[in-house]
Amino acid sequence: xxxxxxxxxxxxxxxxxxxxxxxxxxxxxxxxxxxxxxxxxxxxxxxxxxxxxxxxxxxxxxxxxxxxxxxxxxxxxxxxxxxxxxxxxxxxxxxxxxxxxxxxxxxxxxxxxxxxxxxxxxxxxxxxxxxxxxxxxxxxxxxxxxxxxxxxxxxxxxxxxxxxxxxxxxxxxxxxxxxxxxxxxxxxxxxxxxxxxxxxxxxxxxxxxxxxxxxxxxxxxxxxxxxxxxxxxxxxxxxxxxxxxxxxxxxxxxxxxxxxxxxxxxxxxxxxxxxxxxxxxxxxxxxxxxxxxxxxxxxxxxxxxxxxxxxxxxxxxxxxxx
Length: 322
What we know:
- This protein is an all-alpha fold.
- It has helices at 2-18, 25-33, 38-57, 70-86, 96-106, 110-124, 138-151, 153-161, 171-175, 184-197, 222-230, 240-248, 258-269, 271-275, 280-289, 296-316.
- It folds into two domains: 2-128, Helicase, Ruva Protein, domain 3; 138-316, Cyclin A, domain 1 (Orthogonal Bundle), CATH 1.10.472.
- It is 61% helix and 0% strand.
- The protein is globular.
């Protein structure tokens, strides 16, 4: 009986969370319209997001038995709601629940899950920045186009001629770090590999404060300077991806993250089929066909090869973007 009461209580609590964004909105709107404080305006905007969070939470990873418990859905809701309040510049956007869900599954303690999600968003938050002109992830889509243009100009030209030069069909891959392309467990394995490959022991230093520029500016080529400054330390402290940046990076060629090269590796693995595509619908179908059939370790190995190839070609071009 106690377990049943607990379950009913959890269901009740989560239902209250889901509907929180719908309650008192009319009253809040009247108060803001009457000229109340900026803080109340912030509260109104936050409450507006709560309903969307509730809608997305109940659709996230529904195949997992873990989320059959309303209390676990409530944890996911809480973390997303709190994050949207603490980071009002970004707020909440669709896709964040896919990134947060693994943290809730992996960490029993809700506070641990929140801070791991916050650190993940520290990496990815600019992808979710929206303006009237653009969505932040479009920068990474442009980077994907740049990489393919350098390493496989024929494939790039074909996709561009089909009207796919914006690479919008890779939007989901980059936005939620391949959560839909790989199974739940494989996507987490992929994340761990990517982050290990990108590891930089200098990150997290007390002087590394969000929003601040590097303290030392030696020249126009910080990666080359980094190589000079780091010669006295073993290079193996850096992940393989970062080691390649240090060895071969030139100009701004090192700024593209590994996730873009993982996406490029998927395109290269389907190169022949993509070159035979006669329309964007077919391109999208080809990319959707690989869902659940990809190998995380192989994708990262191919990404490293493409990364080195890109850096060497970019260096031969003088570090310029084309």
